[in-house]
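Why show two proteins at once? Because comparison is the fastest way to build intuition. When a single record is shown, students tend to memorize it. When two are placed side by side, the eye starts asking what differs. So, the first record is below.
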Amino acid sequence: MYKEPATQRKRRLERARIKYQEKKANEGSEAKRARLDKNRQAKKKLRAEETPSMKNKRLLQQRENRIKQRDKETPESGEARRQAEHERYLQRAAAENPERRESRKQADHERYLQRCAAQTNQDRGDHLENIRRQWLERSASEIEFEKAINTFCDQFCEVCTKRCYPNQVSILKLSNYKPNYLPIELLQKKQLLLCHRCKTHLSSRKTTAPPKAFWNKLDPGVIPNEIHLLSQAEKRLLSILRPTREYYRFAHVD
């Protein structure tokens, strides 16, 4: 009896696979529907004739193949697979009638009980650890989100008195260099909380004060109570409107 070599069998199967894929790519909607119906009937017939041992062997083989495929897939392909599975699930759930939905839920519950009964202590521990890890990841994301939306504009630059968010200010130490144009109350400090613009100006060691410094006659004085009652967004909107003053020098004419 002739025995086909392994390399020849591999080439033959590869050619058959390519031919089958080309045939699937060129088939029409009616041919595709007929092929799927035929495959469905053949699979249903095989499932009806298989013994419990054959079924367990088939499920075990499917599980091993699925694990191998999941190990090889990239994060992008895994996300695409989960998205496609979710869409197929939604389509099936939308098309099923109430009786079929109840039957599906009952079958899902029975499969869940079977998996729980077949689980070892190690498998159950791994499953619970995976659930705990996912819960911690979701909790961390929620905490980060809450932290981000609860960040307020409550920091003030000590030079220009600009209201800033925490990421808009930084500390400048005055241990090595103290500009002589700073007011006495600022010179007595060891470090200053400054906005990026004022910190850049002071770090450059210029001999003039920053143009927005409050002692350049830009101190608004006592803030009215009506301003204090405004929200932060309203105060930020008002801070854009800065009063300006222009001077024109005319030549002396006799």
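Second record. Ask yourself what differs from the first in the token line.
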Amino acid sequence: MLSVELAMSNERQFSPVDRLLMQADAAMRTLLPFSGAPARPSPAILQNESALSDDEARHVAGLMRINHTGEVCAQALYQGQALTAKLPQVRKAMEHAADEEIDHLAWCEQRIRELGSHPSVLNPLFYGLSFGVGAVAGLIGDRVSLGFVAATEDQVVKHLDEHLEQIPAEDAKTRAILEQMREDEEQHATSALDAGGLRFPAPVKLGMSLLSKVMTKSTYRI
């Protein structure tokens, strides 16, 4: 959950160079295969593997590739916002949110590999773009930054709902992952608004939705 607790007085103060190095480390851990260690085990481990046809496996892998890239974007967004957040407690909240998203990143990658496929080759591009958007949002103000988190998570929940409708009924492993991700993302959105995030107007959300379609269409196959 996003937290806006006041930073402790003895919290270490990082220099700009320290923070840039931390961002570089976060980028490598996000983009390199199997480099992010989840804090929670994948919900899929409790489910049996189903016998999917080749076409079904390819389709589910494509959907999970979209979700994986979405988590790459979330990592970059949070890291960019943390870099430019004005209040220490907001920066800390963004860093904590990024840590929670690592679970989703690892779960999606593992499922993609199980289905015999691979993450999108476009992930570095989308990471860079999302990092820039997050950094700009942080520069504008913390309320805008938190509002952007809420609006982004709303888009993610919509994608997850669509994917839950598309996956084969017998694919319990993928379904378990997506359902847990949906629950977490809804909580992130609610927490961001509770922390003072700005509620974005419908036209802004529509623009974000159109941009997200570029990501989903391109990463489904590559």
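One difference worth noting in the second protein: The CA atoms of residues 4 and 89 lie 5 Å apart.
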